[in-house]
Amino acid sequence: MRILKKLAVFLIASVITFGLGMTVHRVGPAAIRYFSEPSAWQVLLSFENQDLGGLDEQSMRAVKRAIELKTGPGKLPEYVHFEPRLFRKLANSNGEQRYMLVEQSPVRFIPGAETVRVNIFDTEGKVLSTTEFDLGNRMTIIGMRIRTDYWVVPNALTIDCEYWLGGNSSHQAFTIVGNELRLIYLGDGIRIDQNNYQTPWMTIGPRLNLSADEWERELQSTDDARVLSALIWLRGYHWGGQASPYDEDRPDGEKVTNLYARESVRRRLADLKNSTNFYIKQAAEAIAKQ
Asked: In this structure, what are the phi and psi dihedrals at residue 106, rounded to the nearest 5 degrees?
């Protein structure tokens, strides 16, 4: 009886050992690859500061796969294709380190605009925000870079565009406020332009969903990036009471009228005309002339 028990134990142990051996044989290589291959974030970091638009085919596939793993495949029409352009580290307006991934989708229809998608990450690779926006009707990108010594704010994504049929150019600057991207300059380097919020397909940069009180707090901020963002929005073309059809939501257009009616806002705009930041001063003066 004892011999039978020992034999049974031996057979069970043999079966378990065989099963474990087969499992390791089948799963082992995959497990080794899983733990030895770089993560999606490590792949992106390996391409930091490179011209992503000039990558070879194999590298481009690796970057696109890493982006999809980090941000998800997205739900885009078949005719929309984003191409990686830039992956860089920069600080937000509070000096906190962030990573910015910029992708570009070319003009698809006329009238139309090039579209940009920007993902903001923390230093560990967590996605903090994702935004898509246009760069202006019939505008095409001719240059893109990160400036850490920029003349508007210390850290900025700058995009240079020109009109698709030649002629007018546009210089656009964006920076990270908190965890979101904001437009802080729109012009040609000498004069500033008005953004068009009345017509969505002509609006440049991300749209911010802020209340009138929140916009005033941005305007009153000591953070130049927040102030510039508020000035661009306040000075833009908005719904002004005209009859339908109009594209901007009526409540959004009415926020501007509300703000201009506030004595605190008028005093702040008067003070900003004396700002030591030339572009804040220029924007405030332009508003005063409207």
From this structure: -70, 170
Tell me the three-class secondary structure of 46-100, residue by residue.
HCCCCCHHHCCHHHHHHHHHHHHHHHCCCCCCCCCCCEEEEEEEEECCCCCEEEE
Q: What angle do CA 206, 252, 194 make, to 5 degrees?
A: 55
Measured distance CA(177)–CA(94) in Å, rounded: 7
Contact 72, 148 (CB under 8 A): no
Q: What is the pLDDT of residues 127-156, one digit of tens each?
A: 999 999 998 878 888 899 999 888 889 999
Q: Which residues, 6+ apart, have CB-to-CB distance to 196 below 8 Å?
A: 202, 203, 204, 236, 237
Our measurement of the distance from residue 142's CA atom to the centroid of its chain's CA atoms, rounded to an integer in Å, reads 18
| Residue indicated by tokens 């804040």 | 280
What is the residue whose two structure tokens read 């095409």?
140
Distance CA 232, CA 90 (A): 22
Are the CB atoms for 67 and 101 separated by under 8 Å? yes
- Look up the pTM and report it: 0.83
Query: Tokens 């596939």 identify what position?
Result: 61
Q: Per-residue pLDDT tens for 23-55?
A: 445 544 544 444 457 899 999 999 999 999 889
The dihedral built from the CA positions of residue 145, 90, 179 and 153, taken in this order, carries a sign that is: negative
Would you kindly state where each structural domain of the chain is located, as residue ranges?
208-290
Q: List beta partners, residue 105.
A: 115
| Cβ atoms < 10 Å from Cβ of 177 | 21
The alpha-helical segments, DSSP class H, found in 97-184 are none
In one-letter notation, the amino acid at residue 46 is S
In angstroms, the CA 114 to CA 140 distance is 6
What the block records as the tokens of 263 is 């004595």
